[in-house]
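Input sequence (159 aa), recorded before submission:
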Amino acid sequence: MSEPVDIVRAVDLRPELLPPPVSRQRLDELSCEIDRIAALVADRSEDADDAIRAFNAMTGHDYEAFDFIEYYGSSNVEEFAREAARPACLPVAGITRDELVEIVRRVLVASPESDYYLRLLEANVPHPGVSGLIFHPPEDLQDASAEEIVDEAVNLTRP
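Predicted structure, token format:
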């Protein structure tokens, strides 16, 4: 008798679940502005708050001074610029379990788009700490599959 084989079924995501493309020019513009604001914040410049407000108005996000100082701790300026260039992730009507599983798979791949997919996942499941299920899972979810992570993320009855 042969060993059971896990069959990973790839799911094509609907266009509204895919990250919008960002041009190189837009990435470069936002990267320069992020670096400029980070320097203003680091220098405790009085101009920092105005620069952050203008950046938020330009991008439609709600960043704070902390975001500009700490971005390099978890990402690089290009990743931050890519996030800022895209609209905030919102819940998507009718998202399916299969789509959520595919989104988790894309987070686990650790690609340049992983941050986008993580924000998309956070916006579409009720679990308040879904990223922890992936990156700092409880003992019973160590080495969990994407399916198990999704099942936990949508099940809030767990003690």
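Checked by second reader. Residues 80 and 141 are 29 Å apart (CA to CA).
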